[in-house]
Design goal:
The structure holds 2 protein chains of 2 kinds.
Chain A: E1 4-7, E2 10-13, E3 18-25, E4 31-37, E5 44-50, E6 53-57, E7 64-70, E8 73-79, E9 87-94, E10 106-107, E11 111-115
Parallel strand pairs in A: 2-11
Antiparallel strand pairs in A: 1-3, 3-8, 4-5, 4-9, 5-6, 7-8, 9-10, 9-11
Chain B: E1 3-5, E2 10-14, E3 19-21, E4 24-26, E5 31-38, E6 44-50, E7 56-58, E8 64-68, E9 73-78, E10 87-95, E11 105-106, E12 110-115
Parallel strand pairs in B: 2-12
Antiparallel strand pairs in B: 1-4, 3-9, 5-6, 5-10, 7-8, 8-9, 10-11, 10-12
The chains are: A mainly beta, B mainly beta.
Chain lengths: 116, 116
Amino acid sequence: DTEVTQTPKHLVMGMTNKKSLKCEQHMGHRAMYWYKQKAKKPPELMFVYSYEKLSINESVPSRFSPECPNSSLLNLHLHALQPEDSALYLCASSQELAGGLGNEQFFGPGTRLTVL
Amino acid sequence: AQSVAQPEDQVNVAEGNPLTVKCTYSVSGNPYLFWYVQYPNRGLQFLLKYITGDNLVKGSYGFEAEFNKSQTSFHLKKPSALVSDSALYFCAVRDRADTGRRALTFGSGTRLQVQP
């Protein structure tokens, strides 16, 4: 299984809602990532988990809260978002981070988030 | 610091003709270099990477890229373009020496349009 899955595919939420994005991989990868991508722009790194521990937080606002419950799952909890947070949210995974800078990342199809 | 530049927002090529998508990079040490492709409303798909060894790297779907250290370039090429190659292409770099960061830096992307 060489696939990263993400649910839901689309999400519309109000600024007072709480929602979660989910990501799953069964490739045995120990590094997992959240990216935000605006239309026609490159992905922007948000968070990196390595062995279920938060390794990188790219100064992301606290209204985004990541969670890695186990080595296969990655969640992104959303609360009190702003309309400018509307974007495609991509999850990715790769083999272990340490000593593995040359490992490619495998991306999921993304969740298209719209904040009203 | 690491950075990557894709100087062309869009490349147009006729089906059957060779294509080139340009990428130049800047790192303090030696690079790991990657190419990804993104189809509309989809995640990124890995095409190929340069780690070490041969400067000509072959990847998926008939794509190849040539690493040129003196010109700090990693251009993506294909001998004969297909209409189905039309997509958004991203070059990405990691600096081998920047072990603290451990994250990819993406270029701004190049839209490839292959005309029938």
